[in-house]
């Protein structure tokens, strides 16, 4: 079992920045991949960024150049630095952890990000 606790969401003006954190705990040896997804009202959940333990990273096209995902493997923590935020980034952001390449992911409870003036 894996428990994920997210923090760092909130209200920010367009052009501003936020940093999300997600700490994993539970019974596991290591985590293969950690990532961030988001779900806006009335829309499907979508991948924002994902990083494997080995460093392979992918980003959604909509956030490339603005968001940066990082991991602290020793602390089983993943971060999402979000810069130049836009109103369309408004969503609930969810942390995801995959223990192996074939196992289903675990989800955090979500943290809300609102970009508005």
Oligomer type: single chain
Tally of helical runs:
0
Tell the overall outline: globular
What is the percent of helical residues? under 10%
Mean pLDDT, rounded to whole units? Answer: 96
The tally of strands reads: 11
Q: What structural class do helix, strand and pairing data support?
A: mainly beta
- Low-pLDDT runs: none
N- to C-terminal separation?
40 Å
What value does the Rg take, in angstroms? Answer: 14 Å
Question: How large a portion of the residues is in β-strands, by DSSP E?
Answer: over 45%
Element-by-element helix/strand order = EEEEEEEEEEE
Outline the biggest β-sheet: 7 strands, mixed
Chart the SSEs and their pairings.
Layout: E1 2-7, E2 10-12, E3 18-26, E4 33-39, E5 46-52, E6 57-59, E7 67-72, E8 77-82, E9 91-98, E10 106-107, E11 111-115
Parallel strand pairs: 2-11
Antiparallel strand pairs: 1-3, 3-8, 4-5, 4-9, 5-6, 7-8, 9-10, 9-11
């Amino acid at each position: 079992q894996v428990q994920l606790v997210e923090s760092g969401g909130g209200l920010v003006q367009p052009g501003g920045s936020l940093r999300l954190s997600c700490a994993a705990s539970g019974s596991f040896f290591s985590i293969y991949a950690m990532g961030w997804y988001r779900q806006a009202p009335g829309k499907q959940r979508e991948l924002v960024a994902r990083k494997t333990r080995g460093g392979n990273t992918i980003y959604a096209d909509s956030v490339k150049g603005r968001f940066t995902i990082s991991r602290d493997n020793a602390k089983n923590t993943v971060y999402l630095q979000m810069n130049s935020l836009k109103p369309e980034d408004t969503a609930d952001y969810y942390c995801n952890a995959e223990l192996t390449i074939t196992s289903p992911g675990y989800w955090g409870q979500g943290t809300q990000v609102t970009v508005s003036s």
